[in-house]
Write a structure and sequence with these properties.
Layout lengths: L7 H17 L4 H12 L3 H14 L9
Helix pairs in contact: 1-2, 1-3, 2-3
Length: 66
């Protein structure tokens, strides 16, 4: 699978979807990667890069106050 060129808004949406999936199924990280990468048609490697970028930049929902 080739790496898609995604703008920041798209990467943020993917990051939020990953965090939400992990929150809904704690302990099932592998399953959340599978679901999100399939939904957005991206590789797991690209998803990991997006995850790293989101954590590093504290993208929502990480920076949101409950």
């Amino acid at each position: 699978m080739t790496t898609k060129r995604l703008n920041e808004q798209e990467r943020k949406a993917i990051f939020r979807a990953l965090v939400d999936a992990q929150d809904q199924a704690p302990g099932k990280v592998r399953q959340s990667y599978e679901l999100v990468s399939q939904h957005f048609d991206i590789s797991k490697e690209q998803l990991r890069l997006i995850e790293d970028e989101g954590v590093e930049n504290e993208w929502p929902p990480l920076c949101e106050v409950n």
